[in-house]
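A reminder from the course coordinator: this example appears on the midterm review sheet, so study it carefully.

Given structure:
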């Protein structure tokens, strides 16, 4: 019977094959007090025809308070790469659901980024502001190391390059490290560059020329990615209008670029007669209301999971709005950190991120030819690469 790491107790799957977890987790002590079904890991009802999660690992170290879940969706193209999210989830169910979704998304993102990497992700349950410690991160590093290279970690919400350096003291499979430790540094540099490439391809599909010159682009969120995207857009000759909930970020932008227009919020941005809407804040900004109010011709931004639900992609297509799939155009960041595995070279990573232009173009062409929304075409292309290239590992190379 399987044993949850660190619990010292045995568990058994229930008769439907669901994955059982500890109720209330490690704070109850070493004895299992109860087991409940949280989700159907082995048969997640995902869209698409790709493989299901290969491996989901629960990691616990009671002394440091570490409770982590590492999910490996696919290693068809190589070791799974994806960040570690440190977040105060309301429940273990929520953490598990998040890591399952995020790891699948990484497999698709890495496949379309042309990387020889599969998709995985990890979550650490807790508040990074109060629960993060050297010992906890190093305990986590030992669990990642125990996977022997099947999973490479990186930064995500709640974790930073400095944390990766700490994890790397126990583990060889870490990217997103500080420049001082040979890392790629801030991945938003190539994320923004890649979004700009995707937007150029979108402009070409919509207006015939791969440029934003003379177009009005609305950027929602001018954080690490958004403010860099604004720089690319201004350089290309676009008119830019922004909104951000952080007044300091807005003032900083205005001080540097007084020509950038500012509006109060997302509603005002959507109403600002924009040609392109670039969501660069949080996910889910395109819900039914926004999708029906949007006057822009193109949606292309850095935020993850921009569509509130899958039906939005059809709504946008029906209204003649071109949606550049988020995980395709925002893959510059993972391209940047993945390059660390070879020994980081910024120019090489940038050259690869330039390819986002061609990939986006190919997705639009495929979507038009097959009469499907670009998001569906992107999923199909990613699955095709995972299947075609992944299959080659079955060719025997001799001993
Ligand atoms: N940083 C990367 O390399 C990277 C890579 C891939 C995807 N992403 C995604 O891109 C998005 C932005 O990432 P980031 O690194 O720039 O984060 P960030 O935290 O630096 O910036 C986000 C900005 O959005 C603003 N914001 C939040 N809610 C808002 C709202 N309702 N309206 C307007 N502005 C709002 C914040 O004030 C902040 O300035 C996220 O969805 C992230 O997951 C980032």
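Designed residues:
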């Amino acid at each position: 019977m399987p044993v949850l790491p660190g619990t010292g107790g045995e568990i058994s799957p229930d008769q439907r094959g669901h994955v059982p977890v500890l109720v209330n987790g490690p704070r109850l002590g070493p004895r299992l007090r109860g087991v409940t079904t949280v989700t159907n890991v082995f048969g997640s009802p995902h869209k698409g025809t790709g493989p299901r999660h290969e491996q989901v690992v629960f990691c616990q170290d009671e002394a440091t308070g570490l409770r982590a879940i590492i999910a490996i969706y696919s290693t068809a193209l190589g070791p799974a790469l994806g960040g570690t999210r440190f977040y105060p989830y309301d429940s273990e169910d929520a953490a598990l659901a998040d890591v399952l979704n995020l790891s699948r998304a990484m497999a698709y993102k890495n496949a379309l980024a042309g990387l020889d990497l599969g998709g995985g992700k990890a979550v650490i349950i807790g508040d990074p502001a109060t629960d993060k410690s050297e010992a906890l991160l190093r305990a986590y590093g030992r669990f990642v190391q125990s996977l022997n290279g099947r999973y490479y970690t990186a930064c995500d919400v709640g974790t930073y390059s400095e944390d990766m350096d700490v994890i790397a003291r126990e583990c060889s499979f870490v990217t997103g490290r500080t420049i001082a430790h040979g890392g790629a540094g801030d991945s938003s540099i190539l994320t923004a560059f890649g979004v700009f490439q995707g937007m150029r391809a979108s402009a070409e599909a919509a207006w015939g020329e791969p440029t934003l010159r003379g177009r009005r682009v609305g950027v929602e969120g001018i954080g690490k990615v958004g403010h860099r995207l604004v720089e690319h857009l201004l350089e290309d000759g676009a008119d830019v209008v922004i909104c951000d909930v952080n007044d300091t970020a807005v003032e900083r932008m205005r001080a540097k670029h007084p020509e950038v227009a500012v509006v109060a919020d997302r509603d005002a941005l959507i109403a600002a007669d924009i040609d392109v809407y670039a969501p660069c804040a949080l996910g889910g900004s395109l819900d039914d209301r926004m999708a029906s109010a949007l006057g822009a011709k193109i949606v292309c931004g850095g935020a993850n999971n921009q569509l509130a639900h899958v039906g939005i992609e059809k709504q946008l297509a029906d209204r003649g709005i071109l949606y550049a799939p988020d995980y395709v155009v925002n893959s510059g960041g993972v391209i940047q950190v993945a390059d660390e595995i070879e020994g980081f070279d910024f120019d090489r990573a940038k050259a690869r991120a330039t390819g986002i232009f061609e990939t986006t173009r190919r997705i639009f062409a495929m979507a038009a030819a097959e009469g499907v929304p670009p998001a569906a075409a992107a999923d199909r292309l990613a699955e095709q690469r995972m299947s075609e290239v992944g299959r080659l590992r079955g060719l025997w190379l001799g001993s």
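The longest strand covers residues 66-74. The chain has a mean pLDDT of 89.
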